[in-house]
Amino acid sequence: MLRCTRLADLVNTLDPKLVAAAFGMDPEGVVIYLADHVEPGRLPEP
């Protein structure tokens, strides 16, 4: 659980390719963690 949370945080704040290289993963495997994040500017106004 901690690994998933940390990867999600890193992928959303840094370049996913850099995170993949740092952890020895494929870039496609890291993009999965990016899919769950929506930038606040893209959300409709309440």
Describe the structure.
The mean pLDDT is 80. By secondary structure, this protein is mainly alpha-helical. The protein is built from three helices and no strands.
Keywords:
3 helices, mainly alpha, single chain
Which consecutive residue ranges, at least 5 long each, have pLDDT under 50? none
CA-CA gap between termini = 31 Å
Shape by Cα distribution:
elongated
Helix % is 55-70%
Instruction: Sketch the major β-sheet.
Output: none
What is the mean pLDDT? Answer: 80
Secondary-structure map:
Blueprint: H1 2-13, H2 16-23, H3 27-34
Helix pairs in contact: 1-3, 2-3
Q: How would you summarize what this structure contains?
A:
With 46 residues, the protein is mainly alpha-helical.
